[in-house]
């Protein structure tokens, strides 16, 4: 399956759903996409790997770089592996990506403001 994505931004939070294979061939496109999503969000971006069928070290490198970029911009980047295939979940776990930031099923809602 070719690489594909869906990006949505609501209430200042971004959600990027990834699909297909993430490898060296799509590394630069994924990096640009993640940085764009971080810039669009005002607080946090969730990266959902539920549709990813393959993830290699170049994809892991992009996730780590995006996490660091988000931190430098006072934002958060969460990797969601809840619905990811076991092989993708395992790659993310053994590379330590989840030790540096929580895997989230969704981004926490912004606090409601009462007028």
Description:
The protein is α/β, with parallel strands linked by helices and 115 residues long. It has one domain: STAS domain (Transcription Regulator spoIIAA), CATH 3.30.750. Helices cover 37% and strands 30% of the residues. The protein is built from four helices and four strands; from the N terminus they run ββαβαβαα. It has helices at 27-40, 57-72, 86-94, 97-100; strands at 4-10, 13-22, 44-55, 76-80. Strands 1-2-3-4 form a four-stranded mixed β-sheet, sandwiched between helices. Helix 2 (57-72) links the parallel strand 3 (44-55) and strand 4 (76-80). The radius of gyration is 14 Å and the shape is globular. The protein starts with a strand and ends in a 15-residue tail after the last helix. Residues 105-115 have low confidence and may be disordered.
Notable features of this structure?
globular, 37% helix, alpha/beta, Transcription Regulator spoIIAA, 4-stranded mixed beta sheet
Distance between the termini: 49 Å
Q: Look at the structure and give the mean pLDDT.
A: 86
In which order are the strands of the major sheet placed? 1-2-3-4
SSE order, as H and E?
EEHEHEHH
CATH architecture: 2-Layer Sandwich
Counted beta strands: 4
- State the domain count: 1
Name of the CATH superfamily: STAS domain
Give the CATH topology: Transcription Regulator spoIIAA
Q: How many helices does DSSP assign?
A: 4
Structural class: alpha/beta
